[in-house]
Amino acid sequence: MKLSVVIPVYNEKPTLETLVKRVLAVKISKEVILVDDASTDGSQEIIRQLAKKHKFKTFFHRHNQGKGMAIRTGIKAAQGDYVIIQDADLEYDPQDYFKLLKPIKESKAEVVYGSRFTGEHRNMFFWHWVANQFLTLITNILYNTTLSDMETCYKVFPTRLLQSIKLNCRRFEFEPEVTAKILRQGVRIYEVPISYAGREYSEGKKIAWPDGLVALWTLIRYRLLP
Prior knowledge:
The chain has one domain: Alpha-Beta Complex (Spore Coat Polysaccharide Biosynthesis Protein SpsA, Chain A), CATH 3.90.550.10. The protein is 42% helix and 18% strand. The chain is built from eight helices and nine strands. It has helices spanning 13-25, 43-53, 67-77, 97-105, 126-143, 159-163, 174-184, 209-224; strands at 3-9, 30-36, 57-60, 82-85, 111-115, 121-122, 155-158, 189-193, 196-197. Strands 3-2-1-4-7-5-8 form a seven-stranded mixed β-sheet, sandwiched between helices. A two-stranded parallel sheet has the order 6-9. Helix 5 (126-143) packs parallel to helix 8 and helix 7 (174-184) packs parallel to helix 8 (209-224).
């Protein structure tokens, strides 16, 4: 089994190199796909330096288009058996790949999500927690499921399945869109606990409350429309 690790990057210079080292340290057959979304802080130079040392696939958007577009670029390039999305910060621990892949290897699941709320974690902002819980609840109501963390970054999909889905996301609405479209296909999502160390706004956290409204509309839209 080969894993395609898609890493969207936008102004992640302080953490990018450390994150990539952590990904490489995971003893799993994998390809690393780095997609820079027009960073202005030197992240592009780091990516080029890393690509010289390792056989990475690298892509550079000429203009900032949003995290969702960066993920879509990475998904198109994936050639592994499964795809996982990996944020370029240090909130998620790549050593959790083993937990995420275990149900797949045991033929218990096709799609696996890592839940931040059932594993050990550094607490996130209260209102972020409220928004996450609310959006997950709406997902469960609209799509008749029982997820605990719809907005998690750590999602593992069969590459063939993910590449067959037409995605329209541009910013942070990848999570609700892909979840909605997976569930509409009748695919049940398996959850495992993961560790999580949420970062502060001073450390570069980018998501804000308007993104929550977009996520809500995305869930409703894909429940009601094709």
